[in-house]
Predict the structure.
Amino acid sequence: MRTQEESGRRLKVSFILNGRRVEVLTRPNARLLDVLRDDLGLTGTKEGCGIGECGACTVLLDGEAVNSCLVLAGQVEGREVVTIEGLEQPGPEGPRLHPVQQSFIDKHAVQCGFCTPGMILSAVALLAKNPHPSREQIREAISGNLCRCTGYVSIVDAIEEASRRLAAELAGDRAGEARPGHGGAV
Ligand code: FES
Ligand code: FES
């Protein structure tokens, strides 16, 4: 069974985007970046260089940070993509920003904001694999994301802060699960 098909000069691609299945008819040579911005209107993902050097177009593909300007639409068939628009999380009082997003705000790691979505997604990918990175490991993880404004110190501070917040949230969740009536051990 074919999972992709060309219909005239159009390519049909089906994938999971921010937790929901989407199906798009696009140009056969479209990049994932084009599908997100032009076909789906998700303009949080930015185009800087278009050649894989600035990281402004970073998204998560099956959990890995990738440059969406270097990924062809056909390559995401059946896979899972997360963009900056998909990081919002449910909270007790309604949707809230992801801890990495909130830390960028609180640590003043955003100036013009052009690099910010890609920077945040690189940080999310890092923290999923390494919840307690050193500053050196953070710098390494964002080495493909260029920022012309901040000098990077506040960005590294923000990712460190996000690491602390995520650890605190995890500890809170575990404590909640362990309390009677919360589905944990009694
Ligand atoms: S726009 Fe993709 S890396 Fe620069
Ligand atoms: S905040 Fe302007 S490029 Fe990073």
